[in-house]
């Protein structure tokens, strides 16, 4: 048995969580304000804290920061939110949260996080508190896969080590790099991105490391290069798997020594740059084929973040589509997706990933006259999404029975409706067109209660 503390301004949710935890044999205290939770934690020893993100007065992140500053030995803190978003998840993990979960949390989810938290030691001290960055360029995603990405970013922002972002084309690798920059202590310094595949190999060295006047034909003046331009900040080396071997050797030296030597010069210059490398290629295979240096791969692959393809993030497709429609319509009203159109989006394989989805929604917003986008309207934006793609579901869905596939789709729709309604079950039931009692039964059936 352990002593646990719940800090949540929603009495119904707090009571439900308390009953679940007491049913597991734990002693549970409940506070409904961040200030009261902070005082209770200072007066009594607890082994785990459940902390709501959004509360009146001192919110969850402010409370977590104050706990870090005032409690000598802080227990693991699990932050809960009904409004999943990358900025909140990243900031919570940066501040030292043990985990960040979206309401409603199933009983199995509670059991699992309690088991992990009680088995772990207290997290390390958090970095100094900063105001959360605005959600401009936020990584939209409520799926389990993307929430793991958000957590990895939050854990990586405090390090100075290189980060390797791996994912298919169009999955949003640059957004990961920008999030690492925005949430780190380098946020006020430059962010520089260079596409290694778009620059001819004979010019890439000069582009990265700079050159001095007269270094080659056309070098009429000194040029600092991307490393110097990013000094103190973050440099994204996109498509690094396409970098020439001779440039790879010089990049390795920069990473090891922290200094660059411009083309045509023999005088190294110190630089302080956090390098984020991104690629859609399998670097291990490239090493085996002699196209990529093994030592550089190991130097870059200190902290790896794997971005899943959109076809493995079904819970994110409709929220992303709605987000892109709002962006395309701003400052005017956005068009809405009909249920049939949403189902067609879920059925499509999205080989171009998030980039393809964004392009399709921008075309729909621009070309469709009505306020609602129907399935047939999608054919104008992307013919493959407009037709009923009987072979477009994830391959593993075909391995089971029809009831199993329907069960999986129903669970995705329930999670999306709850996320859109901010955890308000009555509103979620109205959005789904079902009675609230049926919603409660479905949530219990799928372990989402």
From TrEMBL:
Coiled coil: none
GO biological process: phosphorelay signal transduction system; regulation of DNA-templated transcription
Transferase recorded as keyword: no
A GO term, aspect molecular function: sequence-specific DNA binding
Entry superkingdom: Bacteria
Response regulatory domain boundaries: 3-118
Keywords: ATP-binding, Nucleotide-binding, Phosphoprotein, Transcription, Transcription regulation
InterPro entries assigned: AAA+_ATPase, AAA_lid_NorR, CheY-like_superfamily, Homeodomain-like_sf, HTH_Fis, P-loop_NTPase, Sig_transdc_resp-reg_receiver, Sigma_54_int
One Pfam family named in its UniProt record: Sigma54_activat
Segments forming domain Sigma-54 factor interaction: 139-366
Modified residues (4-aspartylphosphate): 52
SUPFAM superfamilies: CheY-like, Homeodomain-like, P-loop containing nucleoside triphosphate hydrolases
Name the UniProt record assigns to this protein: Sigma-54-dependent Fis family transcriptional regulator
Source organism per UniProt: Variovorax paradoxus
């Amino acid at each position: 048995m352990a002593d646990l503390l719940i800090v949540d301004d929603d009495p119904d949710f707090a009571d439900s969580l308390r009953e679940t935890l007491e049913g597991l044999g734990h002693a549970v205290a409940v506070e409904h304000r961040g200030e009261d939770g902070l005082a209770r934690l200072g007066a009594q020893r607890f082994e785990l804290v459940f902390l709501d993100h959004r509360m009146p007065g001192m919110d969850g992140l402010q409370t977590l920061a104050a706990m870090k500053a005032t409690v000598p030995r802080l227990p693991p803190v699990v932050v809960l939110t009904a409004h999943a978003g990358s900025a909140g998840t990243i900031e919570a993990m940066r501040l030292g949260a043990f985990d960040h979960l979206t309401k409603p949390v199933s009983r199995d989810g509670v059991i699992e996080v309690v088991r992990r938290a009680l088995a772990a030691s207290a997290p390390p001290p958090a970095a100094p508190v900063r105001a959360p960055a605005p959600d401009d360029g936020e990584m939209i995603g409520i799926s389990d896969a993307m929430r793991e990405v958000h957590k990895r970013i939050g854990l990586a922002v405090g390090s100075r080590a290189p980060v390797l972002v791996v994912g298919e084309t169009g999955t949003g690798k640059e957004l990961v790099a920008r999030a690492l920059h925005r949430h780190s202590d380098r946020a006020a310094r430059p962010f520089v991105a260079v596409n290694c595949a778009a620059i001819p190999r004979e010019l890439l060295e000069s582009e990265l490391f700079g050159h001095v006047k007269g270094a080659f034909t056309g070098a009429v003046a000194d040029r600092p290069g991307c490393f110097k331009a990013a000094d103190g900040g973050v440099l994204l080396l996109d498509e690094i798997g396409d970098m020439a071997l001779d440039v790879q050797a010089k990049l390795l030296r920069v990473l090891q020594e922290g200094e660059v030597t411009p083309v045509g010069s023999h005088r190294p210059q110190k630089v302080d740059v956090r390098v984020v490398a991104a690629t859609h290629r399998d670097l291990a295979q490239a090493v085996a084929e002699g196209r990529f240096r093994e030592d550089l791969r190991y130097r870059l692959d200190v902290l790896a973040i794997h971005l899943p393809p959109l076809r493995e993030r079904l819970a994110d497709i409709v929220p992303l589509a709605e987000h892109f429609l709002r962006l395309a319509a701003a400052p005017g009203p956005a068009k809405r997706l009909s249920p049939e159109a949403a189902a067609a989006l879920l059925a499509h394989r999205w080989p171009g990933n998030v980039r393809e989805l964004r392009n399709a929604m921008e075309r729909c917003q621009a070309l469709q006259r009505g306020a609602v986008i129907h399935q047939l309207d999608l054919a104008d934006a992307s013919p493959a999404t407009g037709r009923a793609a009987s072979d477009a579901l994830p391959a593993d869905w075909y391995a089971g029975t029809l009831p199993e596939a329907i069960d999986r789709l129903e669970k995705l729709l329930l999670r999306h409706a709850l996320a859109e309604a901010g955890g308000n079950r009555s509103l979620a039931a109205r959005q789904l067109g079902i009675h609230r009692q049926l919603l409660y039964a479905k949530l219990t059936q799928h372990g989402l209660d």
